[in-house]
Specification:
Elements: H1 8-16, E1 23-27, E2 34-42, E3 45-54, E4 65-68, E5 71-73, H2 76-95, H3 107-120, E6 127-130, E7 138-143, E8 150-155
Antiparallel strand pairs: 1-2, 2-3, 3-4, 4-5, 6-7, 7-8
């Protein structure tokens, strides 16, 4: 398991050299009954997710019930299997899509590019996917149906969440 007794800053620094999808579980600054999942979503897009430990027996390292968002888990491994792995798989599909832009431009640059595509083929609706560091765990879909770019923010999460 990738539990490390490190700070947020150290986790982020370490993840910069790791692959997309890598993560650390670490102590939370919010209290002794909490952990933080620090996850390299994509390049420098880092996600921090709060985990609340419940039913922690005296002397136990971790609670037997872990609450992340509105879901409950029995172990950190279950969080990896039911949350991180499906999200990484979904993200892999997006990244491999021909309309995904690997190097994230500014939204203004994306809009300019899509408008140019629209001018070149007015009957089409050009679109692209990007990931911005400003929106952890989100994919941004930009498209131009008429003359202005529309943005959709899509949170990557497992089915059923």
């Amino acid at each position: 398991m990738r539990f490390k007794n490190i700070t947020s800053g150290v986790a982020i620094k370490n993840l910069k050299d790791e692959l997309n999808g890598d993560y650390y579980f670490r102590p939370s600054t919010r209290g002794d009954d909490r952990l933080t999942l620090t996850w390299k979503f994509y390049n420098s897009n880092i996600v921090h997710i709060d985990i609340v430990e419940q039913e922690k027996a005296p002397g136990a390292n971790i609670g037997s019930k872990l609450k992340m968002s509105d879901e409950y888990y029995e172990s950190l491994q279950e969080i990896v299997e039911r949350y991180i792995t499906p999200c990484n798989r979904a993200l892999g599909h997006v990244i491999s899509h021909p309309k995904f832009i690997l190097e994230c431009p500014k939204l203004e640059d994306l809009e300019e590019s899509l408008k140019k595509e629209k001018e070149d083929a007015p009957s089409r609706i050009p679109y692209r996917f990007i990931i911005s560091d400003k929106y952890p765990q989100y994919i941004i879909l930009g498209y131009v149906p008429k003359d202005k770019m529309v943005k959709e923010y899509i949170k990557v999460k497992p089915k059923g969440f």
